[in-house]
Each structure stands twice: as structure tokens, then as C-alpha cells.
Amino acid sequence: MDPRRRSVMQSLEPTAGRSGIPLPSIANKPTPNLRASLARPAQTPYTSHYISRPNNRQSIYPPQNPLLQSASKPPGRTPLNNSARRTSVWPPGALGGAPSNSQTMKDTRPLRDKAYQAKMRHDILDFFQNAGHETITMNTLINIQGKDFRAIFDYLVLSLDASYPLNPKASIQEQFIPALKYLKYPYVSQIDNKWLAAPASMHSWPSLLGILHWLVQLCQMRNHYLASGHPTLQISSDIPDEFDDAMDHTALAYDFAEQAYSLWLDSSEEDSRDLMIEPKQTLEERYAKKNERVQLDLEQLRKQLDDATIEYDKLKSSAAPIAKAQDENGLLKGDNEKFQKILQLYEVKKKKLIDFIAQEKTELARKDESLIQMKMEQERLSDIVKTQNLSPEEVSRMTTDHETLSRNLEDLRQKIAETHRAVLNLEVNVTNRAAATEEALDAYVNLLSSLELLPPLPPPFEGVDLMLELNTAASNPHQLLKGAEVRKVIRPTLNSVAESKRSERASVESERIKVDNELDQLMAECENLDLETTEVEKKVVSLHEQAEDLRDAAQQEALVASNEATRVERELAHARTAALANGMGVNTRLTGLQFKYQEQVEKVSRLKEATVRAIIKNSNDIAMFKSEVSRHLADLREFVDTSQS
Question: Is the omega angle on the peptide bond into residue 456 within 30 degrees of 0, that is, cis?
């Protein structure tokens, strides 16, 4: 044997005859002394076929999660003693079963490729280093020993399924192919047990390395699945507080069934009644915790609904927003009109200010020109002074005189300006007072016209003229008013006219009182006449009623007479018939009946004439009454017109 290979083998053997590769942690756990399950051994959910063609790929998940497989009990009562271990009903030959479609599959991986072999070795080495097994090195994988291969293979198989029955005393040739068939290795038909005698040989190591690489990938997939927290793991502790997945409900149901079944196995007949209380309470608390958030959301939504309902009722009871908007629109329109007026005023002020600024600029330019002229005048005077050769005293005296004269001139100008302003103010006052006087004179003339005092006046004021005219162009104040004198002529005349009008008014008032008294008397007489008219109308109505009664009575009597005449005619006809039958005795009776008929006809005629005479009489009475009332009313109207005139 190669000494290098022997040294590697010795480094991997902590004890004589055994490999230094540790077993997985799940393989070192002691088997608990519990009842053996009646279910078949659990399969790993990560058995997969390494297939390169996509059309032949099969799912890596089993048909059913092994955690959800139910255990079937044999007939009879389950023993209560926990120390009694039940035997498994799993068939011994089931471990070697493999799908029939894997018998003819061909491995398409480039196992003979050096680069691919290096990649597989790196993947295997990374897996063991991540698992914390530093005894596996690259040299171990390059120069593999039989016991190292056995240790690596056992570790990977137990990592995938800790319950797989590997026998450390049996040879690897006996357990290699059944284990791969159990794990559903897709190329198990191409494996030869003779390769295990020298696993590092050139014809056997690529295939064995591919098997180890496939098992490592399967372990990585299993670890990734266990760390993914997928609901199919059926771990109740990983279920969130709020869940809707069916797998989460199934996990809680399985956890409940497991707890109940464990309590039932550990209990006796006496306390079997209260077994389901604790699992039920735990399950109810878990679902209550799930529904807690939903209840909070529901309460919050109800609160929002109540707030929205209150807000809706408030909006419904209050005025419409459009009414408020219309009111605000009206206010804004009013404010807009006010602002427009203010803007117009400001525009007018702006124009006035612009004009004022232009005037001030013109005045400033004029002042500048005046200043320039004054400077030129000063220079001219300075030249004159220099030319005249005056002494400083004379210049000072002339300057003083000039300043004095200038101040006097300025004072006079100011007085003239003040006088001019006073004259302007007086003219304005005179104009205003003249306008007020003209308005007063117009009112005075209108009053004279309304009082009919325009000339010529009635006697004894024939020669008096009360008209006045304003002459604003007169220089003499006494000639401002044209017409008679106010104090001597107009005022006494107006007083006399007022006195005469007052006396006339008093006489008219006394006449009015007298006429009112007469009118009251006439009104009383009219009321009496109205009462009499009412009584006469009542009498007329009663006469009409009597006439109607007479007419009705006459009509009834005429009807009775007509009926009687009809009856008499019938009797007469009957009498004629009887006379024809009985002879002469009937003529007498016929004559009597004719007399009676004639009397009835005359009676009806008299009643008709009496009714007509009564109607004519009543009509004449009514016509006479109406004419009398009309005459009285005409006399009353004529009297009232005469009194008013």
C-alpha cells in the first residue's frame, strides 16, 4: 500500500479499525423508550432523481408529507405500559425497492471530466467544512480509502434519514445498493459492488464520486428546505400569529392530534375524561390569537363606520355646501365690486398724483431756470461792482439795502397773495350765497305760484307786486334785489294775505263742520231708508213666496181638474157606451156629467185669472217700490253734491 495513503488513513482513524469521520448528530441521539409507531418508516422529503433531461424530470417532493401520515393501530387495545416496545409492521424488503423507470436510465453527467470531478470534490469539501467536520480534506477525496468512503456514505445517508437501519457490522457491499435504492438514486442500475473493493481506482472512483456528490446535493436541498420555514414542514412554532395557509391549519390540527394522542397513551381510564381540555384550550388560544388582529381591525372599521355615519348625518342635517359656497360667492362678488370701486378711486388718485408730479417737475425746471438767471444776475452785478470800484462799506450798505428791499418786496408779494386768496375765498362765498339766494328766490316764486299770489293780486292788493329778482352784477348792495321793498311792502302784504287766508280758513272750517253735521243726518236718514228698504224687500220676498204658493196651488188644482176632466171624459165615454147599450136613461146622466165638467173648467179658469191678477199686482208693487227707492237715492245724491259744491 502507498505510504501516503496509509498516512492519510491513519490520520482519519482515531481508534483502530474505525474512521475518524463523525456520525451526524441525529445518528448519535439515543433512541427514546417510547412505543414504536405502527406507520411505515418516514421517508425524507428530499429524495430526488438527478436527471439532465427536462422532459423526464420528476418532482423532488413525495406524494405526501411523512409528518402527516397517520398511524394505524392493530386490532385490540393499546397497552398502557410505556416500556413495551411494539414491533414495526414495515416489510423487510421494502428498503430495497426502487422505481422501475430508474432501471434503464443512463447517467449523462461528465463524470470522467477532470474539471467536473474537481467541482464535485469542492462541493463535497465545502459541505463537510460548513458542517464542522475538519477531518475531511481535499487529499481525502483525491486518495479515497474504503473506510473513509464508508464513513462519508454512512454520514450522508443518516443525514438524509436518521431512521434508516444501517448496520455498522455488515459490509458496505451488502448495504450500498439497497440504501441508494431507498434514496431513489436514478442510476442505481449502473453501479457495481466490485467498485467498493477499490474505490480510488480509475474505473470506479468517478461513479462513486458522482454518488457522493448527488448525496451532498440532496443533503443541501434538505437543509435548505428545513431552513426555509415552508408551511409544508408542519412546524407549529414557526406559524405566524396571522395565517391563512391550509398547511398552517393542518400543522395546528396535527399538533393537536399529537398532543391528544400522547396524553391518551400516557393516561389511565380514571383521568381519560379530562384529557382533551388542555389541547382544546391551547388550540382555542392559538386561533384566538390569530383572530385578535382581525377583531382589532374590525373594531377599528366599525369605529370608522360610526364616525362616517355621524359625519354623514351631520352633513345631511346641515345646509348644502353649495348654499354656503353661493353665500361666500355673493360676499366675494360684493367685495369684488368694492375693490373695483377702490381701484377706480386709486386710479383717479394715481392720475392726479401723476399730473401733480408733472406740474412739480415743470415748476422745478422753472425754478432751476430762475436760479440760473439769478446766478447770472449775481455775476453781472459782481462785474458791475468791480467796474464801479466801490468801497466795501458801500457794497455792504448796498447789499443791506438790497436785502431790505427784497424782504419788503417779498412781504408785499405775500400780502398780495394773501389778499388774492382772501378775494378768491370771498368770491367763492359770494358765489355760493348767490346760488343759495337764487334757490331761495325760486322756492319763493314757486310758493307764490302755488298760493296764486302772482300779479295781478286780488283786491285790496291790486297794485302790489310780490315778485323779486336777484341782480348779482349790481355794485350797490341795496340793488341786489329788484322789486318792492321786503320790509315795507312785501312782508306787510304777505301778513295781510295770511290773515285773510286764516279768516277764510276759519269760515270754511265752520262751514265744513256744518256740512259734516248735515251729512251725518243724511247718513242717518240713509240708514233708516236702508232699514225700510230691507223691510220692503222682505215683504216683496214674502209676496213672491205667496205668489209661488198660489202658482203651485193653481197648478195643483189645474192638475186635479185635468185629472178630473180626464176621468169625466172616461166616464162620459163609458156613459156613451152604456147609453148606447141602455138607451135613453143614460142621456140624463150624460147631461149631468157635462154640467159638472163645465163647472170644473170654469173653476180652473177663475183660478188662473186670480193667479195672474195676483202676480201682476205683486209685480206692480215691486216696480213702484223700486222707483220710490231710486227717487229717494237720487234726491240724496243731489243733496250731497249740492252740499259739497
Answer: yes
Q: Pseudo-torsion of CA 5, 6, 11, 12, nearest 10°?
A: 80
Four-residue CA torsion sign, 142, 148, 151, 157:
positive
Q: Are 456 and 475 in contact (CB under 8 A)?
A: no
Answer whether the bond into residue 14 is a cis peptide, omega within 30°. Answer: no
Phi, psi of 585 (to 5 degrees): -65, -20
> Quick one: cell of 495?
301778513
The pLDDT, as a whole number, for residue 6 is 35
Contact present, 248 and 238 (Cβ < 8 Å): no
pTM above 0.70, yes or no: no
In single-letter form, the type of residue at position 553 comes to: A
Residue type, 319: A
Cβ neighbourhood burial of 209 (10 Å; 0-12, 13-18, 19+): buried
Question: Do 12 and 148 contact (CB within 8 A), yes or no?
Answer: yes
Residue pair 479/471 in contact by the 8 Å Cβ criterion: yes
Contacts 24+ apart (CB under 8 A), 606-611: 607/554, 607/557, 607/558, 608/554, 608/558, 610/550, 610/554, 611/547, 611/550, 611/551, 611/554
Task: Report the C-alpha gap between 209 and 213 in whole angstroms.
Answer: 6
Residue 439, pLDDT score: 84
Question: DSSP label at 487?
Answer: I
| Long-range own/partner contacts, residues 59-68 (CB < 8 A, 24 or more apart) | 60/221, 61/232, 65/232, 65/234, 66/42, 67/42, 67/233, 67/234, 67/254, 68/234, 68/250, 68/254
Measured between alpha carbons, how far is 467 from 38 in angstroms, rounded to an integer? 146
pLDDT band at 132 (very low <50, low <70, confident <90, very high): confident
The secondary structure of 69-88 as a DSSP string is PPPPPPSSPPP--TTPPPPP
Q: Give the residue among 160, 147, 146, 151 at the shortest CA–CA distance from 205.
A: 146
Closest listed residue to residue 133, CA positions, set 7, 17, 218, 19: 19
**Neighbour-count burial of 568, counting CB atoms closer than 10 A to its CB (0-12 exposed, 13-18 middle, 19+ buried):** middle
How does pLDDT run across 439-471, given as a tens digit for each residue? Answer: 887 887 788 777 777 777 777 776 677 677 777
Q: In angstroms, rounded to a whole number, what is the distance separating the alpha carbons of residues 86 and 325?
A: 88
Q: Is 199 exposed, middle or buried (0-12, 13-18, 19+ CB in 10 A)?
A: buried
